[in-house]
Design a protein that fits this description.
There is one protein chain. This protein has 142 residues and is mostly helical. It has one domain. Helix content is 77%, strand content 0%. The chain has helices at residues 10-14, 17-50, 58-81, 85-108, 114-136. Helix 2 (17-50) crosses helix 4, helix 3 (58-81) crosses helix 4 and helix 4 packs antiparallel against helix 5. The longest helix is centred in the N-terminal third of the chain and has 34 residues, at 17-50. The protein is elongated and about 70 Å long.
């Protein structure tokens, strides 16, 4: 007679090496997406209040917002894992870029361009910097 499969506990799931690597990256990416969303909402309120803003200023502002979101994603991912700051930061920023890239392709019909690749490179670099800073930050425990 076969025994029924036992449900894994949270402790057993946490010890899974794949989950241990992916969990901080996924949560960091979600946090970075939330930061991007909030900053884009603030930018839209500024645009409505200003009524006139040079069109050439819009692209650099969106890159800045994406970079800040990637920095937050990298910082949080590395803080959660406590190790491999550059890899976790770059991984979460790359995943965030992938989400933004897919959203850009589906919603606005934006195509692959040198600008998009530059934006992705900036995001990965700032995410890696956020991860490095997070891991190297001294904790305040005494």
């Amino acid at each position: 007679m076969k025994r029924p499969k036992r449900v894994k506990s949270n402790r057993e799931r946490m010890q899974n090496p794949v989950w241990k690597i992916l969990r901080p990256i996924v949560f960091g990416t979600l946090a970075g997406a939330a930061v991007c969303t909030v900053l884009l909402l603030v930018l839209s309120l500024i645009l409505v209040a200003a009524k006139q803003l040079p069109q050439s200023l819009l692209q650099p502002l969106t890159v800045l917002i994406a970079a800040l979101g990637a920095f937050a994603a990298g910082y949080i991912a590395a803080r959660m894992s406590g190790e491999r700051g550059m890899m976790n930061g770059a991984g979460s920023a790359f995943l965030l870029f992938g989400l933004l890239f897919i959203a850009g392709l589906t919603i606005t019909g934006e195509s692959v361009s040198a600008f998009m690749l530059t934006k992705g490179l900036i995001m990965v670099i700032t995410g890696a910097i956020g991860g490095i800073l997070s891991v190297n930050k001294k904790s305040r425990r005494k």
